[in-house]
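Researcher: Here's the sequence for the chain we discussed earlier.
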Amino acid sequence: MTKERPILFSGPMVRAILAGTKTQTRRVLKQATGPSLSVDCSDNGVAELSWLWGDGPGYDVNETIKHVPCPYGQPGDRLWVRECWARDDEDGALMYRADLGLGGSADDWERNRLDGVPRFRWRPSIHMPRWASRITLGVAGVRVERLQGISKTDALAEGIVQLKDGGYGLPAGEHYHSADPRQSYLSLWEAINGPGSVEANPWVWCVEFARTA
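Model: Thanks. This is the structure I predict for it:
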């Protein structure tokens, strides 16, 4: 049975989805920690985590296996995007922060403070209800890999683009690298997940998707 789940995206990633340059997302596989760990992933989006305990003469070798379904679904499921949003108090119109870019605009200010009276307030993506979501994604594939194992092709599928000078980064030039889109993506990852998150090289879910609405 097809299931539908919410998923959060930042403004730049929403814009990449709308532009058609982002067709993958990577999220940490939180249960994949500890020594002597191996990870495999089935076609139905379930990760098999195996830990071996004890190795060497005089030690018993025990294996602990855990099956972890992908929290973002399996192929055929749908994801509805949560993003920063607002609803105009006067006419009920929905607005999306990603449409205004990173720094907002004069139009944003005028709409927000018409005659000095606020007409709306931006609401965090986590508080977006299903009816307010404008983007639906169909899950096309799920796999598990190490973060640093991302390929150049997959970095581009994460929303990194080639800029006019031949380098790579987000369209506005953030996370620039002159030659390698992988490095641009890893810079973006660290900005989102914090210092040391790239060096930790976690196991991640790689979810491939196509926009359906």
